[in-house]
Structure formats: C-alpha cells, structure tokens
C-alpha cells in the first residue's frame, strides 16, 4: 500500500543568482494505491517523475507525507529505500559495476554473506532473465534492452516489496519494450510505472493521469488512457 | 570489474598461487623490519631477500626489478650524502629500505589481480565493526572507488580532447574544473543509484 | 537545505578518492626539470568541494586503496613501498590537508566573508603549506636521516608549483561551488 497524504513538492528557483521564488512540481496529491499494477501517465514535466521519486525518498515532500507499507518515506527513509526498488529511465545511470554479474553481486552483498554463494545466486538470477550469455560482458557493450533487464535484475536482487520504474521503456526499441514490459508486469511485487507508452499503461490495474503537477484522472486503464488521449489531442 | 587499473602480470609462480593474505604479510614484514630496526645488515638482507623473491615471480626481469630513474637517483643521493657526513651505516639502511620496500610491494602487486586486492581490502574492513565503523559501507566505498578510477581517468581524457578541439590544451588547470563538475555529477547519480536499491545508507542508531 | 543522504555522501567520498588518484597520474613537465603531478591539487580540491569530513574520508580511502596495492600513487605505484620513500610525509598528510582546507573553507563561507576566491585561497594555502609541506619535510628528515634545514631545502623546488596549485584549487573550487552550491553549505539554512 502506497499512500500520499496531502503531498506537495516545490523547489526554489534561482533568478539572477538568488533564490527568488519557488516552483510547484506537485500539489494536492491524496492517493491510496493498493493495486498490484499501477501506471502513471503524463506529459514531460507534468510531475510524474516527482510523484515516483517521492515513493523512495529520492524526492522529499515539501508538505504532506508519503507512507509506504506503513512507513514514512522521510522519517523511515532508510527502511523505505530498502523496501522500494527504483528503476531509472537510463539503465546506465543505474548500473554501478562494470559487468552484469558484478552488478547483481553488489545487490546481494548484505543479504548473502558468502562470496561463492553470492556469485552462484547472481548467475542464477541473470540466467532466469535469459542474460547468462552476457553476464561477464561490459555493461557498455550490452543492448539497451539487455541493460534495462540487468538493471531490473539488480534491483530485484535486493528483494524489494515495491518496484517503482520511471519511464523504463522510453529509450528502448519495440522488441525490447515488450521484453521489459513483460518482465515488469509479470512481477509479484506491487509495481508503479511512469510511462509515455500507452500500451504499457493499458495493462495496468489502475492508471493515474498527471498534468501540471496535479492528478487529473484516476481510473481503470481503459478510461484513464482514453482521458489522456483526449487531453493530448 | 573490467578495466580496473592494476600492475598484475599473469603467471604461475609460487607467489601467484600464494593466498593474498600471506603476500600482505610479506609486504608488511619486509617494509617495517627495515624501517624499525635501522640495522644495515638487516636492511641489506631484506633487500636481497625481496630481490630474489621478485625474480622468482617469473614476470620478466624488467617488470620485476625496473624502477624509475628518479628512485635510483634518490637512493644513490641518500647513500652518498650519509657517507659524506660519515654515517655509511645509515646510508645503507636508508637506501636499502627505499628500494626494498618498493620491491616488497611489487611482490604483491605484480602477482595479484586488481579485483583480488579490492576484495582483500573489503575483507580487511570487517573487523572495524568493533570500533564502531560500518564495514559494509567501507567495503562498498572501496568497490565504488575502484569502479570510478577508469571513469575519472577517462573524464580527464575527454576534457583534454575537448580543450584540444578549442586549441587550449596547454592549460592543465583549466582541464580540472570540468572534471570536478563531472565527478560531483557522477557521484550524485551513483548515490541515487545506491538509493534506488537501498544500499549505502547509514546504519540506524 | 536538507542534509545529503548517506548514500550520496558515500558516493561522493568514493568518486573523489578516484579523482585524487586520476590527478596523481597526471604529470606536468616543469621548467626546472622536476615534474609535478596534480595530486596535491586533487587533495585540496576534495576538501574545498566536499567539506572537511567527506574530504578527509575520501583521501583516507585513496591512501588505503593505494596501500592495498592498486597503482594510484604518483608514478603509478601502489603498496606500502611508499612508506620508506621520501614522499611518505606528504602522503600521510594528505587527509589532514583536505580536512584543514575544507574546515577553513566552510568556516569562511558560513561567516559570510566576501571575496570568496581570496578566502578559499587562504584555506588551500594552509592545507598545502602548513600541513602538507611541513609533514613532508618531517618525513624527509626521518627517511633521509637528515636535519630540518636540509629537508627544508629538498622541499624548496616544489614551493613554486605548490603555490600555483593553491591558486588553481581555489579558482576551481569557486567555479564548482557555483554549479553545486549545496555541498559546502550542506547544513546551512537556505538563503532567502
């Protein structure tokens, strides 16, 4: 369960070298998200990234609070971050080590103390996503889709209870988009995805439409996607 | 950990097969015995021993025993200086320690791959738990540092190329500011990537 | 401004340790024949940009990784071999130089001193001359078994390069602090 309680986010704006006024990124957000698959759609700059980043404390609310499975995202930030895995748009800014195997092993530190066992589990997790062939290649030599799947594998290796993904398919071609979509919607965890990809959104249990820092529609997939199409035309 | 800087030269000598802990012990012993005892015969003996050991590493004499001219010059100068002031024993100690310690380190660095060194340092952080440090975070910092080395080196290269394109390659200091800006940006992205997985947080008190 | 997170602190410390290592590998030919590296510049900047504690820990991490055998010291060496070399004093002083430069920088900035560049130069100069050079001279006295005056003489050829690096460090720090103003003022309330 992810709850937004009267959340607003604003950032100070620098004008002529001084902090002049503040810009509102998000306001008046009150939501209780209990569905397993939730999508957030909205134009660039609408505030959907901010909405997602609130969930694991990458952004802190200026007012109100965000509560994930009963934990406050600021007061219990550490605990929340260990329970919420976050997938970035660009997997390269997500991968911390040079190869897929090293990266997944890094996630397993702290969970699996034995080094050999860690390696075995990393290999297994990669193989389960069909990535065994590229486990020891430099992450720079992987295709965009492979990179995103490695990022997903690494984040899941931390055993999060909630997975949040910020436009995970934006940089991918159609085939890889489908691969990543399958992987995300197939998870047993609660998944919250921001996307421009209306096909991806259409498969969610609930879709939020965000515009100019506000949630303007909140409904089942068909209805919300239709609303978004009308809004954009 | 591809692309990690390392002085490793592959081989199958005794020292290549020796567990890394023993090699650290040899390096510690050879470095500190000479420094602490300050006896010319001990320092000479240590130098002879590490020289022999290095040649036994089978990494080629040049890679094993070669040192930059500045090191030979310094050692020679220190020896000559002490002889001139009438303290030949001190001169032998100082010069032998200088070269001996470099060779002792090389037994480790020439026969141990970089990732093994990183793992050893991560493992060595574990006992620090007892003085209140967080070995998980130290280990993570070591791995991230090793991972960032090639990145930072590349950043200097890219900035130099960019400066060259504008015909301003000679001002070295002008190269550094953009590299620092990149370093901060890269660190912030890395920090966010850690947060995305719940890694690298301070332990709760 | 909110406090930076533990994960971002950790990443800053690790990345700047790597930055110091990269600086140590860049060697600049000098008119008098003794090449200088950007190592001390990296150390001072780490303090000026990250502040005293992150700066200190970052340079400690750099030394640890070098002692463990990765070739991150000037001239591409690693291991404990540097401990019986003439540069041992300089090397061991680096974390404290970063700490001193960072502490002074934060103090000057928070006290609201004008002409930031001048005060950051003072902070860098204290780190470079009062901490690194002094410890370096002491190190050469021990390693070379010689007196203060002789060791002081060994240090002299480097003073000019050090002075250039001090000015460069503060100029670069001013530029970087413009891009990331929160770093030095992490615990200062947001300016209105």
Gist?
Chain B is mainly alpha-helical and 205 residues long. Chain B is 73% helix and 0% strand.
How helix-rich are the residues of chain B, as a percent range? over 70%
Q: Please, how many helices of chain A? A: 8
Distance between the first and last residues' Cα of chain B: 33 Å
The Cα radius of gyration of chain A reads: 18 Å
Strand order of the largest sheet of chain A: 6-7-8-3-9-10
Largest sheet of chain B: none
Strand content of chain A: 25-35%
CATH topology of chain A: Rossmann fold
Mean pLDDT of chain A: 90
Low-confidence stretches of chain B: none
> For the residues shown, what is the average pLDDT of chain B?
88
Considering residues with a beta carbon less than 8 A from a beta carbon on another chain, report the largest interface and each chain's count.
B-C, 73 and 60 residues
Helix-strand topology string of chain B: HHHHHHHHH
Describe this structure in words.
The complex is a heterotrimer of chains A (about 230), B (about 200) and C (about 190). With about 230 residues, chain A is α/β, with parallel strands linked by helices. In chain A, about 35% of the residues lie in helices and about 30% in strands. In chain A, a hairpin with a 2-residue loop joins β1 and β2. The longest helix of chain A is centred in the middle third of the chain and has 14 residues. Chain A is globular. The mean pLDDT of chain A is about 90. Chain B starts with 13 loop residues before the first helix and ends in a 9-residue tail after the last helix. Chain C has one domain: Arp2/3 complex 21 kDa subunit ARPC3 (Orthogonal Bundle), CATH 1.10.1760. Chain C is built from six helices and two strands, in the order αββααααα. In chain C, strands 1-2 form a two-stranded antiparallel sheet.
